Amino acid sequence: MDPAELKMLKKRTDAATAIIFLVVAILVLRLWHLQIQQGSEYLQRSESNRIRVQQLAAPRGNLLDRHGVTLVTNRPRFNVIWIREDAPHPDEVIRQLARILELDISELLDRIRAGADQPRFIPTRLKEDIDWRTLVQIENNSFNLPGVQIEVQPSRNYLYGNMASHLVGYLGEINRRELELHRAEDYRAGDPIGKMGLEKLFEPFLRGEKGRSYVEVDVRGFTQKQLQIQEPLPGNDLQLTLDLQMQQAAEEGLRDQSGGVVAMEVNTGRLLVMASAPHLPLENFVGGIPRTVWQDLLDDRRAPLLNKPVQGQYAPGSTYKAITALAALEEGVITPDTSFQCNGSIIFQGRRYHCWQRRGHGQVKLRQAMAESCDVYFYQLGQRLGIDTLAKYARLLGLGRKTGIVLEHEKEGLVPTAEWKRQRHREPWQDGETLSVAIGQGFNLATPLQITRMTAAIANGGRFYQPKLVAAIIDPEGEVVREFQPEPEKEITEIPDSSWGLLRETMVAAVMDQRATGRSARIQDITVAGKTGTSQVVRLSQIEHYEEDEIPYHLRDHAWFTAYAPAEKPEVAVTVLVEHGGSGGAVAAPLAKAVLEAYFRQQKKLDLPEPPDQLSQGEE
């Protein structure tokens, strides 16, 4: 071979060798980079593709009554979830799933799009609380539904139906605003969160702590084996101040009515009953309330979304006469023996003001005026006291301001004054308006809870307590985490015991006297003190052409009754408000009697048979 050719061949061989060495060096460097420098990162990615971390929902804490009876607990709920990362052919899966779930494809796609900005491995909830038949179908077709899994989640179980629904409240899926608000906490899209009532107010205590499940999955996302599990920590229980039997009696009495019932321990402020009607359909809120049901609630003229004991504002009717009587006694306008003639009406400044008893009550003193609820007697007191003096005593007895209860959106009612009318209506106060206020009509507004606190203060001699709904928070081990003791709020020291005593005597007469308007609240062997009330919702001229039993529902008077017992040593106060119920003595007083009997039956002070279950488990 020619030396020149040999030399050229050698150069080419050296160049090829250099290229090979360079390529090998590059491969070695790349392998070193992948295996050594980034090995741990790729190992983690590999493990994450093989090992799936699933969140385990924590059971919420139970709600118990004051005796430890469980009112609300949990049950398993089966939800269909979708993990996009495990679905290689999503279109076919969605079509099959829509058929099984009996949903429109568009509805499934809307839910999938709602979670599109989440990482692909985060599950999207497609349908909540499926039945057993659907569950079996999905499990039997699981091989053809990659990415679709069944999530087991604790859900609320209302053992007594919709009892105390406004107080208990409901859960809903957390929204974007709430996620932002609770960013530092362990929430994610799709989690349930308290939306109303105690479920919302005590969310941090009730929700518990999530657990974690580490499972090995195959390439299609199917679980191969359980690797590790960190059990969730259940939430704390709430022991309420509610009394189950009293609450049942109240709700049974309100079953076909609209209104509210409140019962309170006179010397502690603990609330034994908080009933509002119509109730909320709690089961409909599980997994998201259907739009049609929500719209029906909005359209219902009985306002079922309103928590009547704290959000319903009504003219207090003749229950207000306790305030007028106390003001008149304290201001020296009357003595217990002062009398006025009632002929069924009086004429004041050219206008006739009627008594409810059109034939009149005759010559009336304070005790009879309260017992028989004589309007003419209290017109005379109002005329002599004036609006601002009435307002002073109304505020003293807790009207016109919020009670401070923990529930949301409490209303403060209204105590009218001459200055209020000037500012609100740009008009001067008319003396005739004072007569209406003196019997609880006119601009007066109060909530059932305010009237209950007023009654309790009369019973205990002027002491006000903060209303309590929760007695204790109890952890999963049964230990008390926090106990809520009675909180004295204020005491009315400017009114002597003698005036309280006189007022209490008149309230005893309003139930126990022969012609008392509240006599249907009498209980054998128990002395009950109280006051009926009938609150007009329209002017008499609008209904006077109707027969009494033909008055349209929405034009009928509201029925009030407020009471405490035993009168000799008061323990419990009860207030009943029945919207458009008519007469307080005929409608509200018997319901208060049933609630009081439920209380004293448990105190062993009444030898009465146990009533049948009024709200059995699972009923509404």
**DSSP strand tally:** 23
Uncertain stretches of 5 or more adjacent residues: 614-620
Note the overall shape.
elongated
Q: Helical segment tally?
A: 22
Content-based structural category: alpha+beta
Radius of gyration: 35 Å
Strand proportion: 15-25%
Mean pLDDT: 87
- Mind summarizing the main beta sheet? 7 strands, mixed
First-to-last CA distance: 108 Å
Q: What percent of residues adopt helix (DSSP H or I)?
A: 25-40%
How would you sum up this structure, described in words?
With 620 residues, the chain is α+β, with helices and mostly antiparallel strands. 36% of the residues lie in helices and 20% in strands. Strands 2, 3, 4, 5, 10, 18 and 19 form a 7-stranded mixed sheet that branches. A 5-stranded antiparallel sheet has the order 12-11-23-22-21, with helices on both faces.
Task: Quickly list its features.
alpha+beta, 5-stranded antiparallel sheet, 23 strands, 20% strand
Write the layout of secondary structure elements.
Layout: H1 3-37, H2 39-50, E1 51-56, E2 63-64, E3 70-82, H3 90-101, H4 105-114, E4 124-127, H5 132-140, E5 148-158, H6 165-168, E6 171-173, H7 176-181, E7 192-194, H8 197-201, H9 203-206, E8 211-217, E9 223-230, E10 237-240, H10 244-253, E11 259-265, E12 271-277, H11 282-285, H12 291-299, H13 308-311, H14 321-330, E13 340-342, E14 345-348, E15 351-354, E16 362-364, H15 366-372, H16 375-385, H17 387-396, H18 418-425, H19 431-438, H20 448-460, E17 463-465, E18 470-474, E19 480-483, E20 488-491, H21 497-512, E21 529-535, E22 558-565, E23 572-578, H22 584-602
Parallel strand pairs: 2-10
Antiparallel strand pairs: 1-8, 2-3, 3-4, 3-5, 6-7, 8-9, 10-18, 11-12, 11-23, 13-16, 14-15, 17-20, 18-19, 21-22, 22-23
Helix pairs in contact: 10-22, 14-16, 14-17, 14-21, 15-21, 16-19
